[in-house]
Amino acid sequence: MRKNTRPHPLALSVAALALAGMLAGCTGMAAGTGGKASTGMRVTSAAFADNGVIPAEHAGAGECGGRNISPPVAWSNLPAKTRSVAVLVFDPDGAAGLGVSHWVAYNIAAERGELKAGEGQAGSNFNFTMGPNVAGAPAYRGMCPPVGDRPHHYVLTVVATDLAPGSLPAGLGRDALLAALKGHALGGQSVVGLYSR
C-alpha cells in the first residue's frame, strides 16, 4: 500500500494557526522590517527531512513500533536578542483531530544550537526544563498513531525567546508554555515529519 506523504492541508493549517497565534504580539521584531519577524531562522532534524518519514526509533516503545528516542533538532540564524529557545513536538492529527503534545522542552540556552537524539528521555539532565507530555510525564513521548491511520504530521517547532535560560518555572505544559511566551517570543520555525503504523 502506497503511503501518502503529502501534508494534510488541515493539519498544517492548524499548526500554522497555533504558531501564528503564539507569535502574535511578540516584542522582538527586527528594526526596520515593518513589524515582520526575521525570516532567516532555520530549524532542521538530522533524523528526517521536512515532510519526510520519521524513523521508527522515534516512535513509542512496544506496540507503537519504536524505541521512544527523542529526535535530534538543530537551530541556527536566530533573531537578534535570542537568549533561549523552546522545543515542541505536536501531532495535530492525534486525538481525533484535537491534537497530541509529545514533547515540551524549554529554558534551553540558545547557543547550544541543538538537542541531540535521546536528550528528551525521562530523567535526563541536560540543563533545560521539560514540561508534561500528553501522558503527564516531563519527557518526550514517542509517536503512536492508530494502526491504519493515514500518516500523522508531527510538527517539531523551535521558538526563539528573549528570556534567559532558567527563567520559566518547571511543570509548564504546552498551553501554559505558549501563554508564558507571549510577549517574549522572537520567532519560530518548524519541520514536519510523518509517521504511521
TrEMBL record:
Annotated signal sequence range: 1-30
Residue stretches spanning the membrane: none
Keyword terms, alphabetized: Signal
InterPro entries in alphabetical order: PEBP, PEBP-like_sf, YbhB_YbcL/LppC-like
SUPFAM superfamilies (alphabetical): PEBP-like (SSF49777)
Entry keyword annotation includes Signal: yes
Highest taxon of the lineage: Bacteria
Coiled-coil residues: none
Protein name: Phosphatidylethanolamine-binding protein
Organism: Variovorax paradoxus
